[in-house]
Design a protein that fits this description.
Blueprint lengths: L1 E4 L12 E4 L4 E5 L4 E9 L2 E10 L5 H15 L3 E5 L2 E5 L3 E6 L3
Antiparallel strand pairs: 1-2, 1-8, 2-3, 3-4, 4-5, 6-7, 7-8
Length: 102
């Protein structure tokens, strides 16, 4: 499944974080600037995200910090739910993702 973070692009960019989750929970993330991999583990409504390799891409400081914050928020996720077509990942903060519809 492919999802886009429910957020506006950062100033000076059209890119919005994109999440692709494979059948076995493997994840590829295109963040504000960086690219990353990870692994989701799901049991009922419980969720664990384990970050993997991160590709830096010589990001500007503001986008690099936003990417690091988003990865930390994903790693802090403990539960998930669907709300309509949205995927909501819940931890210290909630992250809303919309399915990619292109």
């Amino acid at each position: 499944m492919e999802f886009t973070l429910d957020a506006a692009p950062m100033r000076g960019s059209k890119r919005v974080p994109h999440l692709e989750i494979g059948e076995k929970g493997e994840a590829q993330l295109l963040l504000w600037c960086k690219n990353a991999a990870g692994q989701f583990s799901v049991a009922n409504d419980s969720l664990i995200f384990i970050p993997g390799a991160v590709q830096d891409n010589n990001c500007p400081a503001d986008r690099a910090a936003a990417d690091d914050n988003l990865l930390a928020a994903l790693a802090d996720t403990t539960t998930w739910k669907r709300q309509g077509d949205r995927l909501i990942l819940i931890g210290k903060q909630s992250l809303r993702f919309l399915p990619l519809t292109n």
